[in-house]
């Protein structure tokens, strides 16, 4: 038998080396897999056990949508009796998602027949309901650029939105908002002011001054949403309710305000004046019952108004008061004891003061024999200067300041001017006398009315106020703070001036202001009107008074700027006073005077 082949050329048998490498590689891979499994298991334990709550909260936060504001309803502005002058009403903006708008839209008639479908059907139905051009609606529904938000219509009523929603157009939603509305149109428009386009921020008048009280506090809501942004039914949600703003109650009497505005507008047209202001104050409280202007503004459309008409001229515009401020000179002279109502004077048409300055009356006359009451009744400049010379510069200035000249009243309106009252040391040789009859000093209409309210209130000055208080959403009322009154002159002096003012109406320049059955005290004013060039152009005509003079209740001031058809205060301002005061007395139920006036003789 042949033996094994031991040929020296044969290769000996060896183990397969590739198998060893495969085994090692398999063990290495297994080790890596096990290590990864350990890591994953550890991470899983960390996520599901150790950090479970934090991870869940982060996931929920990722699913929660952005905060959506819940707008607070702005508080109302009310008149003294609670009638609404300004309010916020709910409105809706119609929004489209152009990515899905009108998908699958169909509308059937009562017989089940499809009468509108697809994009064009949705466009036609939406345009018809919203009263918009179909081209504009189509553009909103097909807006490009990947946008998912497009405005279809703004500021529609909730009722109209309900009809739009009932169409069931895919991708159509709404966003709530509030719109500010003023039911009276231009009624008290210069007082109420206006808000921004969204009706949420006061930009003028009471709306601006009382913005913090009216605005309220917005809330918000967030809901859990899916990957495509859809709300998850029964998902988590967060909601903080908005807090409505407080109502603001004014001292304004709506009906008296309307009457004052109507008469101001009529006289402005009749007299061809630049503007007319009418102020009505309640004696004793300082409540502003009316603050009327012509021209005025409708806050519902303030954007188209003349910028010069925005705001209240009664507090922001100054004028030289003229003879209406002679009551300050009269009160100062009586209070200082330098004159009595029946003191006798020879009053010429022209008069030369001690320093050589010459003055004249508004109309030519022969030498007149007048009492001091007659000087006021006839509104004599020369007679007023003769009496005023008995007061020092400091006394003249001091009484003007006491009556409120040169300082703001503090009325709750923006833009109030303090007027212009130069220091006594700054008066030149002429101005020291012209201030005695209302030239060389400037006031606003509210300041001028406050002077007469002080006399009517037995010499106590009470700052005028427009805001009576606020009312919280729960009905809690907060009366406004009332600054204390300040005595300016004694009751005796106030009564003497009041009797002299009755003579102005009964037997002087103010007879057009007389009201049958009532004793009326007041004063005319006709002053040259300063212009922008440093000179004078035209006149400021005015009448200010109160009634019943025996028991004063209401002060009315009428200012007519640069009338061109008549210019004396007794011609153009006194008739407006009569109409507004007559209405005020009747509406308030103020009884007629029980006794006739006991007037001072005006001549001797």
TrEMBL record:
Localization per record: Membrane
GO cellular component: a single term: plasma membrane
Residue span(s) of domain Penicillin-binding protein dimerisation: 72-232
Domain Penicillin-binding protein transpeptidase: start-end pairs: 277-581
A GO biological-process term: cell wall organization
Region of interest: Disordered: 470-489
Any one GO molecular-function label of the UniProt entry: penicillin binding
UniProt KW keywords: Membrane
Pfam families: PBP_dimer, Transpeptidase
Record family assignment: Belongs to the transpeptidase family.
Protein's name in the database: Penicillin-binding protein 2
Source species of the chain: Pseudokineococcus marinus
